[in-house]
Amino acid sequence: MASPKRLQGLTAATITPMTPDGEINLSVIGQYVDYLVKEQGVKNVFVNGTTGEGLALSTQERKQLAEEWVTKGKNKLDHVIIHVGALNLPEAKELAKHAAVIGASGIAAIAPFFFKPTNKDTLVAFLREVASEAPGIPFYYYHIPSLTGVKIRVEELLDGIKEKIPTFQGVKFSDTDLLDFAQCVKNNKEQFVLLYGVDEHLLSALAMGASGAVGSTYNYLGKKNNLMLEAFAKQDLVLAQQHQFCTGEFLSFVFKLGFGVAQTKAIMSFTSRIPMGPPRLPLLSASVDFIEKAKAKMDSLMV
Ligand SMILES: CC(=O)N[C@H](C=O)[C@@H](O)[C@H](O)[C@H](O)CO
Ligand SMILES: CC(=O)C(=O)O
Question: Active-site positions, per UniProt (predicted)?
Answer without folding.
Answer: 142 (proton donor/acceptor), 172 (schiff-base intermediate with substrate)
